[in-house]
Amino acid sequence: MLRIGLTGGIGAGKSEVSRQLAAHGAVIVDSDVIAREVVAPGTPGLAAVVAGFGPQVLLPDGSLDRPALGRVVFADQARLAELNAIVHPLVRARSAELEAAAGPDAIVVHDVPLLAENGLAPLYDLVVVIDVPDAERLRRLVELRGMAEDEARSRMAAQASREERLAVADLVLDNSGDLTQLTVRVDELWQELEQRRA
Q1: Which of 116, 128, 113, 117 has the alpha carbon at shortest distance from 35?
Q2: What's the chain look like in SS3?
């Protein structure tokens, strides 16, 4: 098994790279998707969040009110740490289950937005960083996702810098071009990963 940590700043194109790698046969373990699963209605994770933060973080249908919880935790580092202490172990455990089910010959790609920020590079055989100049990421967030420019800048500033991400990279995938160029680069990346697995 080859374990890949895939990361990139907001607007870098991680979702598209993951989608293309999955089409090649990679097993994708997406931290964001798992983080939602572990606090779905009826889960011990959601029960723990409600115990820690109160019923005001629930919507009328019993699901997690993410904006309400966000207002609490992003204004208070101690509360954010409390939330992370609940969610992160659940995400790690579920990720390990998915990886174990992948099989010994799999190329497992862990899609981890905050890999550099949380010092997670040593957990993987290889770290692949999707690199896009900050100005292009900002353009994508504003033009393609419809974010206000100040919100986009704020989200980018809350993440590791481009330099910090590149410092943990074993392989860098340039996604500053169009989708056709990206597809060629992902094909090349897949060939490299297959060689390294062999």
Answers
A1: 113
A2: CEEEEEECCCCCCHHHHHHHHHHHCCEEEEHHHHHHHCCCCCCHHHHHHHHHHCHHHECCCCCECHHHHHHHHCCCHHHHHHHHHHHHHHHHHHHHHHHHCCCCCCEEEEECCCCCCCCCHHHCCEEEEEECCHHHHHHHHHHCCCCCHHHHHHHHHCCCCHHHHHHCCCEEEECCCCHHHHHHHHHHHHHHHHHHHC
pLDDT in tens, 48-93: 999 999 999 999 999 999 989 988 887 788 998 899 899 989 998 9
Taking the C-alpha atoms of residue 193 and residue 187, their distance in angstroms, rounded to an integer, is 10
Tell me the two tokens of residue 139: 């353009």
Could you tell me the end-to-end alpha-carbon distance of the chain, in angstroms, rounded to an integer?
A: 10
Question: Judging by DSSP bridges, how do beta strands 107-111 and 171-174 pair with one another?
Answer: unpaired
pTM of the model: 0.85
Token pair listed for 24: 């090649």
**CA angle (174, 148, 136) in 5-degree steps:** 15
